């Protein structure tokens, strides 16, 4: 067993946090707990106990924890690492030690491109005769940018080992990420490319305090599970029998996500030609014409001066659609892009956003009431600047909350466009 100062808690870390996640060890989880609840408790605990390294705070990140390099060394204890040739390692800071070990072992290192903006992978190619110091730089995020070449869909890639970051993971192999879904999507895309199979092992590297009981009810069919967990004190073989994602589940992909991930569009085109059902999450809805003066397509922002939709009078609380979320107490200088980035960080990106910056609020429009309610849960406690945002279903706001400031504004366009 390995040990390091600050990691003495080991398996039975933080009993009060375990009690939040499970009523009693070995029993079922408390009702109503969500993935976001678990994330928040992990992040809060790591900050309060000073278990995190740069970058901080760890909230909305895959936490870089003290002892991450030590935990990464545990991969050398796995026989699968010695047998691998191509290793896919996420770009998260706590996985830097594994990226370095892969390079030092002369393995092919594949790192996903940030948020999949420019493709799926970058292959790291160190300079010939690179010293250990140079390899160490190649393992950093800056080194990945400076010493890599893109890997396209047509490249013959066969990944032998997948290493992902986590916010929380259970000894059964059930994993929770930071809420954006990129690790799950990357794996599904690799399946679609034929780069991985159900037998490809998946490893995650976390602090001991991130190993918690996770209710199975929280798992969905697109969630990636792990086969090994490395911490500063333990190497855990999960024996997870739950199937990993068998490919991209297009019904869970939104039009907004398609718009910002070009390689996803390419994969969808290929699978459509192959005769697969590639209907998107929100594609079945009746989408307005882009040129309509009263509507906007999903993923767009309606500015305050855009003509409002057809309305016969003041907005009444009962008229507000049940799939709409109110976000208030926005800082005076907040930009639309800042709010959208924060929403994505919580995994709550809407189909459409109505911006009312002069009134320090916005309205988020989701696919259905269930998605709106889930967004409200995910966005509780969200901060922008020094402000804690007010988040609720818009229908729960009173009529005066929704229209009270309209009388003070010179333009009726500033009334809620919902």
Automatic annotation (TrEMBL):
InterPro entries: FTHF_cligase, FTHF_cligase-like_sf, MTHFSD_RRM, NagB/RpiA_transferase-like, Nucleotide-bd_a/b_plait_sf, RBD_domain_sf, RRM_dom
Biased amino acid composition, Basic and acidic residues: 272-292
Keywords, sorted A to Z: RNA-binding
Coiled coil: none
Keyword RNA-binding: yes
Chain spans, region Disordered: 272-328
GO CC annotation: cytoplasm
GO MF annotation list: RNA binding
Span of domain RRM: 323-396
Name of this protein: Methenyltetrahydrofolate synthase domain-containing protein
Organism for this UniProt entry: Molossus molossus (Pallas' mastiff bat)
